Structure prediction request, 1536 residues.
Amino acid sequence: MRHISINKFILAGAFLVTLASCSKKLDLFPQNDLTNETTYSTAAGYRAVLAKVYAGLATTGNAGPAGASDIQGLDEGSQSPFIRSFFNCQELPTDEAVVSWNDQTIKDFHNLSWSSSDPFLKGMYARPIYNVMVANEYLRESTDDKLAARNITGADATEIQSTRAEVRFLRAFNYWVMMDIFGKSTFIDETNVVGTTLPGEKNRGELFTFIETELKAIETELKTVKTIEYGRVDQGAAWALLARMYLNAQTYTGTAKWTEAITYAKKVIAGGYSLHTDYRQLFMADNDKRTNEIIYAVNCDGLHTKSYGNTTFFVHAASGDDHNEFGVGGGWYGYRATKGLADRFTDLSGTTDKRAMFTTSAFGTSPAQIAISDVGNFANGLHVNKYRNIRSDGGTVSDVNRDFADIDFPIFRLSEMYLIYAEAVLRGGTGGDLTTATGYINLIRQRAYGNTSGNITSGQLDLPFILDERARELYWEGHRRTDLIRYNQLTTATYLWPWKGGIASGTAVDAKYNIFPIPATNRTANPNLTQNTGY
Amino acid sequence: MLPQKLMKAASLIILALLAQISFAQDRVITGKITDSKDGSPVQGASVVAKGNRTGAQTGVDGTFRISVPATVNTLIVSSVGFATQEVSIEGKTSVEVSLVVVNASMGEVVVVAYGTRRRGDLTGSVTSVSAKDFQKGNINSPEQLLQGKVAGLQVTTGGGSAGGGSRIRIRGGASLNASNDPLIVIDGVPVEGNGVAGSANLLNSINPNDIESMTVLKDASATALYGSRASNGVLIITTKKGMKGKMKFTYNTMFSVGIIGDKVDVLSGDQVRSIIDADAAATGNNTYKNLYGQSNTNWQDEIYQAAFGFDNTISASGSLGKIPFRASLGYLNQDGILKTNNFSRFSTAINLNPKFLEDHLSVNVSVKASQTKNRFADEGAIGNAVSFDPTQPTTTGNKAWGGYWEWLQNDGNPIDLSNRNPLGLLNLRDNRSKVGRVIGNVQLDYKLHFFPDLHILANLGMDYMSGSGNDNIDSLSPTNYKVGGRRTYYEQQKVNNLADFSLFYTKEIKSIRSKIDVLAGHSYQSFLTKVTNLPSFSYRAIADPTRPGKLDTIQGSEPTFLTDRPEYRLESYIGRINFTVMDKYLLTASIRSDASSKLNPDDRVGYFPAVALAWKMRDDFFRTSNVVTDLKLRLGWGITGQQDGIGYYSYLPRYSLGNASAQYQFGNSFVSVLRPEGYDPNLKWETTTTSNIGLDFGFAKNRISGSIDFYSRKTEDLLANVAVAAGANFVNEIVTNVGDIKSEGVELTINTTPVKNKNLTWDFGFNYTYNQAEITNLLKNPDPNFKGQDVTFIGGGTGNNIGIHAVGETPYTFIMYKQIYDENGKPIDGLFEDINRDGIINNDDRYLYKKPAADVLLGINTQVTYKEFTFGLAGHGAFGNYLYNNVNSNNGVLRAIKNPINFIGNATTDYLNTGFDNNRYFSDYYIDNASFFRLDNINFGYNVGRILKDKASMRVSASVQNVFVITKYKGLDPENASDGGVDNNIYPRPRIFSLGFNFDF
Prediction:
């Protein structure tokens, strides 16, 4: 009896050990994730990654509005989004925007006093490079060889091959952002293998060449204007980016390219676009219908594409008690413009120039209202009611709570191309003429005024007028800093606006603020990166 | 699921063996066991018949009763902390035994990693605390039993919530971004550190009354056998076991009431009105004057309550047939001092320890099962009670917003970004959870019949946790009215299976008074989480009128995946040799290899060796001394690891699917995205090397005893979250192995007995800990401009942080602006020093200033016993620690009263000191010295003795907890469980009065 028990026990013990060793499976894979191979085994997988390349400009991560951020170590809603970061860099340092919040260093932007340890700049640097990474991954995985190896053929393969030009456009656009804001960039393309070597750097000129070359290479590969489904880029986008880049070529490379700016602006203008009759509808919840004028927009949706840093930010940050007029359920009481923007308009009421969208039930446009005595007081300043999460057709917006906006963010609009054409002509570019330029400007103004009362003569069309007209037409769309730099007014005493440089009356600042510093953490992580002068 | 099957198989084997047991017994012996020191009764001593398996246990009055066979002549009496004695019972029916205390008792058995050891033979830095030395009073969670008791151990409760958890640090922790929590081992089962959904504190599932002892393993030579989970020390919890003998019952009951001590000093309604009046007169702007009300509401008085607690445990211990067993049932019901907060626990623990096959096979079956229920209060009420307008009444008398007064917009809806009525937050939310937990293990210890020096131990364990809950927010709540209220149900399970199999070989070599112990084993453990994702529902039949098909499902709440099963597994081999020469020189050498599923197959195995030497010096130098009664030198060295900072799958390239709110529109459809995830194929363990020198000493017959330890520790390949070169990986920050941190410290423990006579004993003990940590490297590529890694995010603004991990500094050092003061010492609003003298005040002007970690920790405890009375005190303190007063930086400004979003709030009285208009979050003015000493406990006890015609004995105890705090800190409470040292609206720790009764029968 005893021996039987002992033997049983020893057997049981041996059994345990054997089982324990058998079950030692240490190779585990997460239930809900995919391997690279499964991801790219179907055309739908490619489409999902393509969507991610596009979405990098609209969302902040894999969980909308927040929770699975693409960018780590920063506030997901305020520091990692593309649109909000881009807006902070392009608008806050100018007369067009000022913020009342106490979020970290946010006030340094309007004060033109940022440093290389600025967390918002970390996000501004990280976001475009992240988008480039994903674009490169897509390009690596969509080569003809890989498609063939994965048995993706026929229409699927053709479609995937055609998307490569779109992805290259998006990569070029992200590099343009880096070139404009930081003046140089970490540089990677599809040949850089993930996780192996430290990337190198391209300076402004090199970036310019790269973007120009890429855009010209894909110009013919992209679909012709308006032949691709909504949300994706076509030839118009590549031309528009080239036109914008050539307009600023002197800033970027020291060599002006006015003629090329005219050439590419003309290509867009001839592409089949037309100004939408109602300016205000370009920035409403259903502006996805404005493909007549909008060349490329970043798509946002209150239900499906949620982020605290896409157009949702515009409608919340600019609103207070008057948030219903912005189409949202609550205001964030933060951003508004200075008197500098107000002074571009002769009438702020919006009855003459309909682009003057500054009056709500809570805020008017009285001089006392516009004057800012305390930057921290949201009530002071010119309130901007340009973006509205309200449908022009009277329908309901996607988000029943009205927390997240449906408005798509226009990257390129036809009117910008008219303005580029006119400015390049004035600055001496060839291939265009003053009469056409004046005609284009008057198209913009007739739409704004609803009649010809705002029209100008070719004699009135000069460079200061263009700069002002750009402010009137394009304010809060992310152009102002680039424009002021092109006119050498961002840091100089030529033009002072309230609180420029942190002084109520405005002051000139060091010229180094024409360009942002490379965030110190990036240089720590990658010794190949160099700092901009003065930081 | 294999281990579960194994457990079933093992249970069957045990049952088969149980069937062989027979019964027999005879004469009765009674007696009393006392402490030789003062004659006080020794409770819970074990009395066993020699050569037989019957036994008994003493009650609170020290008496016992045992039936022994006629053939038995000797009883063996033992108790933790006393020398074991053999007593002859030849011709006697009753005996009195006086046990001799072995202070720091050399003979006492201490639970260590994978085994036990006599205290006198310990070679590592190990502190064991048994039940009699635990913190007294109303304690709901086991770790709090050790507060202030052990040098080198810091237990900081997160606050005063019912059943809430604590931050446990052994020697301050060895890591930076990875976990600094110690490994917790419950009866041989290493348990999961992360909680299960619905549980605020996993340890609260264990009834403190079931715990026999807790052992703290501090240095690497003591912990290294736990390998990759051992760097932050190990806390071993051992529950009470069965005692042979007649069935004995113990019943403990305790009633307690907790009240709030201090509250945050805020302005009254009158003060707020006069500030606004003055401001309106100065500015001519009456906006705010038109907003205030006429009440004087003290919101903090409104949200706190007296918290009642009721804790009962009944246990039975004895022999069931011939199987020693112990079983207990416990029920605790504890209110929190914040209204609506409640915690309850129903627990049971069963231990069976039979022996079979002529004692060759020892079986230990242990099951601890509990169900805890939480009603979580919305702790947002704490901050809102500080900041809510005191000029307004609590309720309106209307139905809107539940009847609670709220700040409304013109359209009658609440202002989105305003404060919320704290009472509304509490009463309009019903957030309850239920957590079931079973920790069970079966240990089979078989001593080979043909080779008794060798025995085989199989330990099969399981820790199963199941949490679920309902978090319901009323449709009238201002926080969720837009969706018509929110009902959320959640659930999650965790299964942790363990299969250990080891061989022990013990050989005594009598000729040279030497002994050798060898352990070789294999261990396999898996940690599986079963996640269920569910949407939230509205109280409305149709949550979203634009999507009627979705009925009451709230938009955006639908999960991407209904389930998930994250899991990691660990397979290990362990080996250890204990070699004792001449009972004087002791050597311990051990090694563990861990293979983890979290790492790349090519380098997933890590080796963690340790070695320790001890020399009982007294035998060589003070053999005949009456002064030096104990002296032992210990030297230890070892390498341990850390893997808690590594994601389960972070070495793998993979794609993850975005959710339905992160899609992108192509044409008329929204496409879900697939995102490539960042990964680091070269991830490996973080490794910590620790050296320890310790001296154990005892003087004057151990009337003074203690130990002192010096240690130095260096952690390399830190699992730090560092910036990745942009463009080099799919993430801009990744957890990777980079950097080093070192720490060193001293620990001193002294226990004394200044007075000891027949009626009166006075014990006094204290422990002292000094610890200093420094980051020595954080970079892969040296960079002179590198300032450090931002940490410590605060409340207020978005993304504001005030701490930094900087090379050459203590982790979490504060980085602040230097406040400028006027000639009266008053801080000037918004004026800071331009540290780098570049004419601009920006982020570059922040400087390193103080740190949140304490330099010195202190614990004291004392007990006086006079006849049947006891009186005790226990306290602990921390020195050299600083806190950031986020309550004041957020609320101590005019902007908090005159909120720019057109509502009125309240300010803390610190506003009267600063007069700041705007928040100055980064001012070093808000960094305060938070050194403190807290008297944790005053307790009284009285031994009533035998009652109910001698059928039972009773003891009465009363205690006051959290008696007082001595500190210079201006905030509410200087003791703070956040690593970054941010004091922001902690749940106040109550002062608790309790009365307990203890019965044995």
User: Anything to note?
Assistant: Residues 12-25 of chain B have pLDDT under 50 and may be disordered. The longest helix of chain B spans residues 2-18.
